[in-house]
């Protein structure tokens, strides 16, 4: 893909040392536009010429020419020509008068003056003539050489001392462990989607790790774990962030200066550096986030030629990239939102373009739906499919899934459970709603309501999930030696909790969370109880046998109706507070809603010595069911990750702490002999980028107010482009930041790292707009500003590089790192 | 230069050519058929109702009916209902002049106080529980309930007037008004001592005034223009001063004003100069920011003037504030503290004393952590000599006199009198919280831990440096000097080894708000005598101090915000905003078990669903219009579109601004928070009905001046079908109102089957429902 260095004419040696092949693309101004300005000037404007006011912003010549597509070159993408502009001009006058003062212009978008609506994208590029000198060759290929240099630098920063700490640092404890599960093929459960962790597993596989290490936090890696190789492989994603940043800023049409600055900021931020150097998901998340933005900007620049091969390729890659980023962490949905908003605006523009035929309109819509919705969903689902295919052994995450799914895992013996359930059986009961757990009780009692023993839904196996099926108190008591009595539809039973002997009980006390339902508790013991312990079994159906009258383990879906109150046992993913250990609330629902899967239960484990073992292995669990079940379970446990007010967590931080780097984060133990890593950012990058967001908003406000007063600061395409880059950066930032303010879960500093990218893009954009492509400054001034900025960046990076490369020895001996009072970098 | 020069110049301005350019020519003529260009060409029905006589008859009938429906059996129930517990009580405090604290601004509550005072309520009944009888307590409650009933009734003609001023037919205006008139939720809410009737009334007046103001926009800076601008500001302030949600009304007027100013800024219109813009901007800043704020403040000023006595709200306020209230305990018995006094300390939130006893912490806790085995320091709820501590200086003191007073930021030691040990904390985890420090005591003569026994007295509320430390009023934090933790306690109790007393530990967050203590009493001075009177100002009778009004206001306003955000406890009848427009759930206000009577706040389901349909149709029209214009089509006549966007669009903003913010709030939410939005949606429904019935509107409706361009007039006509539709619909609405009325008026009592039949949606949680028979 050749980039804008367009028509090169000069075959000789450049006549001045600082000329470049960029100059060759400088084609004349689009004359029609200026013609129409000429026309205005003498006649209708005449006497007012004295009131001319300077525009707030000048584009430099270089910039203006590069961006503005020449009339001659426009034949490809638009039917823009001189005549149209003149007639547009007339129309414009007409429209001014038509403007009715009693109403408002209900168009939601300012109209460009010349009536043309062209995307801010770059025009088509032309093949370059062959270079004749080495200088020429180098100049023509700066596009390749610069990113290569940056990539090499990036390799050095990312790989330097990467194995220095031979202990399990920070969340390596989690993600290393999950990687091991893939190698051992054991089913585990985690709140994040699987792609990132599968890549960790792949890195382990490629480096020859056997999955045997437990990844206990702070432990020293044994010789069998090739942790350096694994870290290097994952850090490669981090390396690639830097060239992506370069290419993105080029695609965003920034000047060379601004491109360099943006790339340097990505290269030299210690936060991104630090997080990329360990066995964590963040480097992959960041890489895919960067990739998505890059694909989007690339696609934007193909807009001049819709449905061309390049156009399709970049649209498709945007979709793939969205799918990947979402499959690494759900935070990827935020960048998806950015692409979504961009697409909606784009389609809205297209919708208003009456030159497009209905068929073209439809094709545009269909292309977006396929590439940006269908493809990402397929990628996301594919990652889960692979996840299920790899993890086919029983493991620690079993109980999160449905009973049938578990029965199909190797090493699980549910399928050997006795088939028919009888009185006297010991069972565990699984809620059949999406993400449902096992009916559970423990000795702790409710601090509210009846103060009786808690009954919850729990997602891990332990013997507190076991219940005995016994007859009602007034019924014939269960005789272990007597004839077997199978459990049938309509039977009235008592469920006795095996470890504590309490009976499953409900009464007219409101449940702790679902206030309209009755509380369910454990009450009495093996001899004490009342008629509030009675539950009637209502069989819904049998997933494999259809409708039957008898309860079978695993496949029978049944409901438990409280005999005295007529309510139904229900568990609907409502999380109890800390006193209930964040387990799921179980309540008794007064409404008889037959369709409510949260009132469906099935027998999972089943023990009864007097019954023969069954064989249910044949019943497969369909993929879509498992996929949805796992996703609901992930959401539920993610929502349970709310900060515990009773527990002070010094690692957690609030979103307001991030933009100005109020806090850092100690990633490991802080002993004198340890190598210490401190997650923070390069202060100039964080502070500067945050300030630039405010500056950009202010600038926009000033321009739009002047626009309403009809000061013409930029021509329409310049303005469109200014807005386009600003929108990508601002909305990207806002989508990645605001949700954290609203959501209740615990947040950490590293949640800001994807957000930071957009702030940095905005920093580049603002610098570009005010300095590097402004005509107010000479090249010399620009060079000086550039030099100063780069040296500040490099110096700060050098000053703080220790926190990412690892601090040796007592931390207090490293002087001058505590720039803000609140950083707990020193002891 | 030429290319540069072009960019910098201002865009040429076409001359505003109003004379040679006929507005109507751009208009597609196909719309002309329906337009009535003369008032005489309309149908007879329309002519009658549009006349002043017809209009007066309609509005009088609506108002009379509104009063009848709201005053019907207003004396029932003769018991305290739902939030009357709060607002009745607050009204009583105005009569007894006792200071109270509430999250809502005072206007509506003051009006209730005024109403109570008028009807001779003495303020002695405190509305303690739902169901308390008014009769046996001799409360003239009917007079107090009459106030919201009057305001609620008057809302109906205001709604009518808003629609009339917006240029809709009388029939359409009557339709919108009847949506409020026959609404069970509005009626139920207006018949009880609740704030919402006042809020909704003032809010509707704000909308009315703003619509009026906009109609004078071509007569800018005339008397009428100023009058309605200031009226808007005034009613806006009243809305906000009635209930905290009223601030949303301020926001929605703000949004409308921003749109307005944006238009005025537009240089293409009449070539407005910046001076012109600034004068408009300043007029609005004065009339809609400064003036309402003064009005709002004046209600607080009255509030403080009336509430001069000490009351239940004292403890929320700072000591300086409390000393302005007559009879306040701090004012009456607050003394300076001298070194070597023996004191008792009490925790502000949980009211436990700082306590210690000779028993020691167990070596190992249940969870395996170990303690220092030092002497226990706990929080104890009762008076006991083990609560006595002597305050020891760490600096040299003069022999006598005021130099011995303990002051803010002094570093002191605390000596536990019965065991003769010094209070100490150190980096050992507390028994219940691994993150917090353990408190213990240390022998007085052992100097090895001297540093750990040093504490700093830090007076709360940013007291000045040399502020004396006083008993009662001296709220303070005790900050440990070496480790910077604050003495803190929380309601969790320790196990049996500490006699279930409350845990005391060191909180590492020194800005923790609940770490505040005060000196309950000065037990003895340094000679173990009763402390002599030694106050700075030897006042014989304690007169309340005065305090700057603005300081008082700011303190109260901040507290109101904090407490409003803190109302997060869950409530069985709380509901999510998404349920509200569809009337999914109501609130049980009151029940009477003997007669099976109940008041259940629920709207007229036909009316509410009509409003939802109206809203969705309006959004549909707007969206269709946007899409069509995007494709260069023009399906709606310009004048009608203007009305839809500018007038109904404003109603939509009112609706949205009063509704959307609730999605972001974490506090408990109830269906009655939707009532202001419901009113806005009734306005929208009227406009949509007009759009469906006919394309005609009264146009233009703004007052013309010489500056205004001549525009072709047109007149609305909904004809017979309009009257028939509205009458028919009104009848259905009224029947539904009657059907639900037993739940609204709380009478007559209902049998189980009747309750079941009134339960139109299965989500309404009515009481006394007959057991449903499950036939499966």
TrEMBL record, chain A:
<feature type="domain" description="MIR">
    <location>
        <begin position="484"/>
        <end position="540"/>
    </location>
</feature>
<comment type="pathway">
    <text>Protein modification; protein glycosylation.</text>
</comment>
<dbReference type="InterPro" id="IPR027005">
    <property type="entry name" value="PMT-like"/>
</dbReference>
<dbReference type="GO" id="GO:0005789">
    <property type="term" value="C:endoplasmic reticulum membrane"/>
</dbReference>
<keyword id="KW-0808">Transferase</keyword>
<feature type="transmembrane region" description="Helical">
    <location>
        <begin position="365"/>
        <end position="384"/>
    </location>
</feature>
<feature type="transmembrane region" description="Helical">
    <location>
        <begin position="784"/>
        <end position="807"/>
    </location>
</feature>
<dbReference type="Pfam" id="PF02815">
    <property type="entry name" value="MIR"/>
</dbReference>
<comment type="similarity">
    <text>Belongs to the glycosyltransferase 39 family.</text>
</comment>
<keyword id="KW-0812">Transmembrane</keyword>
<feature type="region of interest" description="Disordered">
    <location>
        <begin position="105"/>
        <end position="127"/>
    </location>
</feature>
<keyword id="KW-0256">Endoplasmic reticulum</keyword>
<dbReference type="Pfam" id="PF16192">
    <property type="entry name" value="PMT_4TMC"/>
</dbReference>
<feature type="transmembrane region" description="Helical">
    <location>
        <begin position="684"/>
        <end position="704"/>
    </location>
</feature>
<keyword id="KW-0328">Glycosyltransferase</keyword>
<dbReference type="InterPro" id="IPR032421">
    <property type="entry name" value="PMT_4TMC"/>
</dbReference>
<comment type="function">
    <text>Transfers mannose from Dol-P-mannose to Ser or Thr residues on proteins.</text>
</comment>
<feature type="transmembrane region" description="Helical">
    <location>
        <begin position="228"/>
        <end position="248"/>
    </location>
</feature>
<feature type="transmembrane region" description="Helical">
    <location>
        <begin position="724"/>
        <end position="743"/>
    </location>
</feature>
<dbReference type="InterPro" id="IPR003342">
    <property type="entry name" value="ArnT-like_N"/>
</dbReference>
<feature type="transmembrane region" description="Helical">
    <location>
        <begin position="311"/>
        <end position="344"/>
    </location>
</feature>
<feature type="transmembrane region" description="Helical">
    <location>
        <begin position="755"/>
        <end position="772"/>
    </location>
</feature>
Automatic annotation (TrEMBL), chain B:
<dbReference type="InterPro" id="IPR036300">
    <property type="entry name" value="MIR_dom_sf"/>
</dbReference>
<dbReference type="GO" id="GO:0004169">
    <property type="term" value="F:dolichyl-phosphate-mannose-protein mannosyltransferase activity"/>
</dbReference>
<keyword id="KW-0472">Membrane</keyword>
<feature type="transmembrane region" description="Helical">
    <location>
        <begin position="722"/>
        <end position="741"/>
    </location>
</feature>
<dbReference type="InterPro" id="IPR003342">
    <property type="entry name" value="ArnT-like_N"/>
</dbReference>
<feature type="transmembrane region" description="Helical">
    <location>
        <begin position="223"/>
        <end position="242"/>
    </location>
</feature>
<comment type="function">
    <text>Transfers mannose from Dol-P-mannose to Ser or Thr residues on proteins.</text>
</comment>
<dbReference type="InterPro" id="IPR027005">
    <property type="entry name" value="PMT-like"/>
</dbReference>
<keyword id="KW-0812">Transmembrane</keyword>
<keyword id="KW-0677">Repeat</keyword>
<feature type="region of interest" description="Disordered">
    <location>
        <begin position="1"/>
        <end position="26"/>
    </location>
</feature>
<dbReference type="InterPro" id="IPR016093">
    <property type="entry name" value="MIR_motif"/>
</dbReference>
<keyword id="KW-0328">Glycosyltransferase</keyword>
<feature type="domain" description="MIR">
    <location>
        <begin position="403"/>
        <end position="460"/>
    </location>
</feature>
<comment type="similarity">
    <text>Belongs to the glycosyltransferase 39 family.</text>
</comment>
<dbReference type="Pfam" id="PF02815">
    <property type="entry name" value="MIR"/>
</dbReference>
<dbReference type="Pfam" id="PF02366">
    <property type="entry name" value="PMT"/>
</dbReference>
<keyword id="KW-0325">Glycoprotein</keyword>
<dbReference type="Pfam" id="PF16192">
    <property type="entry name" value="PMT_4TMC"/>
</dbReference>
<dbReference type="InterPro" id="IPR032421">
    <property type="entry name" value="PMT_4TMC"/>
</dbReference>
<feature type="transmembrane region" description="Helical">
    <location>
        <begin position="192"/>
        <end position="211"/>
    </location>
</feature>
<feature type="transmembrane region" description="Helical">
    <location>
        <begin position="139"/>
        <end position="160"/>
    </location>
</feature>
């Amino acid at each position: 893909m050749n980039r804008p260095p367009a028509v090169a004419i000069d075959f000789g040696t450049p006549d001045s040392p600082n000329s470049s092949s960029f100059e060759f693309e400088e084609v004349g101004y689009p004359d029609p536009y200026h013609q129409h300005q000429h026309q205005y000037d003498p006649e209708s404007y005449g006497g007012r010429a004295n009131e001319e006011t300077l525009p707030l912003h000048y584009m430099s010549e270089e910039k203006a020419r590069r961006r503005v597509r020449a009339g001659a070159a426009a034949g490809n993408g638009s039917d823009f020509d001189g005549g149209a502009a003149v007639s547009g001009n007339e129309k414009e006058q007409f429209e001014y008068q038509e403007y009715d003062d009693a109403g408002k212009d209900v168009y939601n978008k300012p109209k460009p003056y010349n009536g043309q609506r062209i995307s801010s994208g770059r025009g088509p590029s032309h093949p370059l003539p062959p270079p004749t000198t080495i200088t020429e060759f180098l100049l023509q290929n700066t596009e390749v050489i610069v990113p290569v240099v940056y990539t090499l630098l990036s390799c050095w920063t990312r790989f330097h001392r990467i194995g220095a700490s031979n202990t399990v640092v920070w969340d390596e404890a989690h993600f290393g462990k999950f990687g091991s599960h893939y190698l051992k093929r054991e089913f585990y459960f985690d709140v994040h989607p699987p792609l990132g962790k599968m890549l960790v597993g792949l890195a382990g596989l490629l480096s020859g790790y056997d999955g045997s290490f437990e990844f206990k936090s702070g432990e020293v890696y044994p010789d069998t774990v090739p942790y350096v190789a694994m870290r290097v492989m994952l850090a490669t994603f981090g390396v690639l962030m830097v060239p992506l940043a370069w290419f993105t800023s080029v695609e965003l049409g920034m000047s060379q200066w601004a491109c360099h600055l943006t790339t340097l900021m990505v290269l030299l931020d210690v936060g991104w550096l630090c997080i990329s150097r360990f066995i964590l998901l963040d480097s992959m998340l960041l890489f895919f986030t960067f990739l998505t933005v890059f694909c989007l900007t690339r696609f934007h620049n193909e807009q001049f030629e819709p449905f061309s091969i390049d156009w399709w390729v970049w649209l498709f890659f945007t979709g793939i990239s969205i799918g990947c980023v979402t499959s690494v962490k759900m935070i990827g949905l935020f960048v998806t939102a950015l692409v979504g908003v961009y697409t909606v605006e784009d389609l809205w523009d297209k919708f208003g373009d009456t030159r497009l035929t209905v068929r073209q309109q439809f094709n545009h819509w269909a292309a977006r739906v396929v590439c940006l919705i269908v493809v990402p969903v397929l990628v996301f689902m594919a990652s889960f499919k692979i996840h299920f295919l790899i993890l086919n052994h029983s493991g620690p995450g079993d109980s999160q899934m449905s009973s049938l799914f578990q029965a199909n895992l190797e090493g699980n013996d549910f399928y050997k459970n006795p088939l028919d359930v009888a009185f006297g059986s010991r069972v565990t009961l699984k809620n059949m709603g999406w993400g449902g757990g096992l009916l559970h009780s423990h000795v702790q009692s409710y601090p509210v309501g009846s103060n009786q023993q808690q009954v919850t839904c729990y997602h891990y196996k332990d013997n507190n999930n076991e219940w005995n099926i016994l007859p009602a108190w007034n019924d014939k008591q269960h005789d272990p030696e007597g004839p077997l009595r199978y459990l049938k539809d309509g039977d009235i039973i008592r469920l006795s909790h095996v470890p504590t002997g309490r009976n499953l009980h409900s009464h007219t006390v409101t449940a702790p969370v679902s206030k309209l339902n009755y509380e369910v508790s454990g009450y009495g013991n093996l001899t004490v109880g009342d008629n509030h312990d009675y539950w009637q079994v209502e069989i819904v159906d049998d997933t494999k046998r259809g409708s039957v009258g008898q309860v079978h383990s695993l496949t029978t879906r049944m409901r438990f109706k409280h005999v005295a109150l007529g309510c139904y046992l229900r568990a609907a993913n409502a999380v109890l507070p800390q006193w209930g250990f964040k387990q799921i609330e179980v309540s008794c629902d007064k409404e008889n809603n037959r369709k409510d899967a949260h009132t469906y239960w099935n027998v999972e484990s089943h023990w009864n010595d007097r019954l023969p073992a069954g064989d249910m292995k044949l019943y497969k669990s369909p993929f879509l069911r498992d996929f949805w079940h796992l996703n609901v379970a992930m959401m539920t446990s993610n929502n349970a990750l709310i900060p515990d007010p009773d527990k002070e967590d010094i690692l957690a931080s609030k979103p307001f702490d991030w933009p100005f780097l109020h806090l850092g984060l100690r990633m490991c133990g802080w002993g004198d002999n340890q190598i210490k890593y401190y997650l923070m950012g390069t202060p100039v990058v964080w502070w500067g980028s945050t300030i630039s967001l405010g500056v950009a908003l202010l600038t926009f406000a000033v321009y739009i107010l002047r626009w309403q007063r009809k000061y013409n600061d930029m021509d329409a395409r310049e303005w469109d482009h200014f807005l386009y880059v600003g929108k990508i950066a601002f909305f990207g930032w806002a989508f990645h930041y605001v949700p954290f303010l609203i959501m209740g879960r615990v947040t950490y500093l590293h949640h800001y790292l994807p957000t930071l990218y957009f702030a940095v893009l905005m920093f580049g954009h603002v610098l570009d707009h005010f300095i590097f492509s402004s005509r107010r400054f000479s090249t010399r001034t620009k060079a000086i500003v550039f030099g100063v900025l780069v040296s500040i960046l490099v110096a700060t990076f050098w000053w703080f590089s220790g926190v990412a490369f690892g601090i040796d020895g007592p931390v207090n001996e490293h002087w001058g790192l505590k720039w803000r009072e609140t950083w707990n970098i020193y002891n | 230069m030429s290319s540069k020069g072009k960019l910098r110049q201002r865009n040429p301005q076409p001359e505003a050519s109003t004379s040679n350019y006929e507005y109507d020519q751009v208009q597609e003529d196909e719309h002309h058929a329906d337009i009535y260009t003369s008032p005489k060409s309309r149908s007879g029905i329309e002519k009658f109702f549009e006349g002043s006589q017809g209009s007066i008859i309609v509005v009088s009938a609506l108002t009379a009916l509104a009063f009848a429906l709201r005053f019907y059996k207003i004396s029932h129930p003769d018991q305290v209902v739902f939030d009357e517990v709060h607002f009745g009580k607050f009204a009583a405090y105005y009569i007894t002049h006792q200071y109270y604290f509430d999250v809502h601004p005072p206007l509506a509550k003051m009006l209730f106080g005024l109403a109570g005072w008028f009807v001779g309520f003495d303020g002695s009944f405190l509305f303690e529980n739902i169901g308390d009888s008014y009769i046996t307590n001799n409360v003239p409650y009917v007079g107090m309930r009459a106030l919201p009933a009057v305001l609620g009734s008057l809302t109906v003609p205001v709604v009518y007037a808003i629609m009339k001023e917006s240029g809709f037919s009388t029939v359409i205006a009557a339709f919108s008004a009847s949506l409020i008139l026959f609404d069970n939720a509005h009626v139920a809410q207006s018949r009880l001592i609740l704030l919402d009737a006042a809020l909704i009334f003032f809010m509707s007046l704000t909308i009315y005034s703003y619509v009026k103001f906009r109609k004078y926009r071509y007569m800018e800076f005339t008397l009428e223009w100023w009058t309605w601008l200031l009226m808007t500001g005034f009613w806006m302030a009243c809305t906000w001063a009635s209930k905290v949600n009223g601030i949303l009304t301020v926001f929605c007027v703000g949004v409308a004003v921003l749109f307005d100013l944006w238009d005025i800024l537009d240089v293409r219109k009449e070539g407005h100069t910046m001076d012109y813009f600034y004068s408009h901007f300043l007029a609005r800043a004065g009339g809609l920011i400064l003036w309402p704020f003064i009005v709002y403040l004046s209600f607080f000023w009255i509030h403080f003037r009336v509430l001069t006595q000490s009351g239940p709200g004292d403890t929320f306020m700072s000591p300086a504030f409390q000393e302005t209230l007559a009879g306040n305990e701090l004012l009456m018995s607050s003394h300076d503290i001298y070194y070597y006094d023996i004191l008792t300390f009490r925790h502000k939130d949980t009211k436990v004393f700082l306590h210690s006893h000779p028993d020691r912490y167990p070596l190992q806790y249940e969870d395996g952590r170990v303690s220092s085995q030092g002497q226990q320091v706990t929080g104890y709820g009762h008076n006991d000599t083990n609560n006595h501590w002597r305050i020891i200086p760490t600096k040299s003191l003069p022999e006598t006199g005021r130099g011995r007073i303990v002051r803010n930021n002094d570093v002191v030691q605390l000596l536990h009198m019965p065991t003769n040990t010094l209070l100490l904390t150190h980096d050992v985890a507390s028994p219940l919280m691994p993150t917090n420090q353990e408190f213990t005591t240390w022998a007085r003569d052992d100097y090895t831990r001297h540093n750990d026994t040093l504490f700093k007295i830090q007076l709360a509320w940013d007291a000045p440096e040399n502020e004396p430390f006083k008993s009662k009023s001296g709220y303070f934090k005790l900050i440990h000097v070496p480790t910077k933790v604050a003495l803190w306690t929380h309601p969790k109790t320790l196990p049996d080894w500490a006699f279930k007393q409350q845990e005391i530990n060191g909180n590492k967050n020194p800005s923790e708000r609940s770490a505040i203590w005060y000196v309950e009493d000065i037990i003895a001075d340094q000679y173990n005598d009763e402390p002599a009177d030694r106050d700075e100002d030897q006042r014989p009778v304690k007169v309340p101090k005065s305090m700057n009004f603005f300081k008082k206001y700011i303190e109260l306003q901040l507290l109101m915000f904090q407490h409003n955000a803190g109302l997060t406890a869950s409530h069985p009848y709380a509901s999510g905003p998404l349920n509200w427009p569809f009337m999914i759930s109501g609130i049980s206000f009151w029940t009477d078990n003997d007669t099976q009577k109940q008041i259940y706040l629920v709207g007229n389901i036909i009316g509410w669903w009509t409003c939802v349909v109206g809203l969705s149709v309006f959004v549909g029209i707007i969206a269709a219009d946007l899409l069509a214009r995007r494709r260069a089509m023009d399906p709606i006549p310009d004048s009608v579109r203007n009305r839809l966007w500018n007038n109904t669009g404003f109603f939509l903003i009112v609706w949205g601004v009063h509704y959307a913010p609730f999605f972001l709030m974490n506090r408990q939410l109830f269906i009655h928070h939707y009532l202001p939005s419901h009113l806005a949606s009734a306005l929208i429904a009227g406009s949509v009905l007009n759009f469906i019935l006919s394309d005609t509107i009264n146009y233009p409706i703004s007052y013309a001046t010489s500056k205004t361009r001549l525009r072709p007039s047109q007149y609305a006509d909904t004809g017979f079908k309009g009257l028939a539709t509205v009458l028919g619909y009104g009848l259905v609405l009224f029947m539904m109102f009657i059907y639900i009325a037993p739940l609204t008026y709380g009478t007559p009592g209902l049998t189980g089957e009747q309750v079941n039949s009134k339960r139109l949606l299965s989500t309404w949680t009515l009481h006394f429902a007959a057991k449903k028979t499950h036939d499966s």
